[in-house]
Amino acid sequence: MPNKAARHAAILEITGANVIASQEELRQRLARRGVRVTQATLSRDLRELGLVRVPTDHGARYVRAETLADEAKPSLEALLPQLFASIAGVSELAVLHTVASGAQPISEAIDAEAWPEVLGTIAGENTILIVCRSAAARQAVVARLTRLAQKS
User: Which domains does the chain have, with CATH numbers?
Assistant: First the structure.
């Protein structure tokens, strides 16, 4: 197995030259090059490289987050239907679950909305903690996000 730097270079080369829609597709392309990697390692590599899965006119693909200009970043309305898994909450806190690698772009999109009910978000790999101003604000945010996720 190549070292981490070589694996990262291969990931960047593959995602830069091809539309890669899933971690499994990327894992298979790496395997064809002789790079065997587990899903957990690949997930960690994508996070370390700053690669995010974003919707495009031709389906989802992985791109470097810094290559997305603010005006080119996908909207919450575009991201949620593709990346949303579930949402629940208690008191002022909501936890939104996404598909793998979906948390970062959705968290950024929520922050960009600057909703007055939301104090901020914290994103992991596939989970976002949304801190709201009150329990009533959390209920409104959960309802809004659920509606947006169901549009398609």
Answer: 4-68 (1.10.10.10), 72-150 (3.30.1360.40)
Cα Rg of the chain, angstroms: 17
Number of helical (H) and strand (E) elements in the chain, helices listed first: 6, 6
pLDDT, residue 20, reads 86
CA atoms of 131 and 40, how far apart (whole Å): 28
Q: How confident is the model at residue 110 (pLDDT cuts 50, 70, 90)?
A: very high
Task: State in Å, rounded, how far the first CA of the chain is from the last one.
Answer: 41
The verdict on pTM exceeding 0.90 is no
4 contacts: CB under 8 Å, gap ≥ 6:
45
For tokens 């909450």, the residue is 89
- The pLDDT of residue 148: 92
**Pair 144, 137: CB distance under 8 Å:** no
Q: Which residues contact 143 (CB under 8 A, 6 or more apart)?
A: none
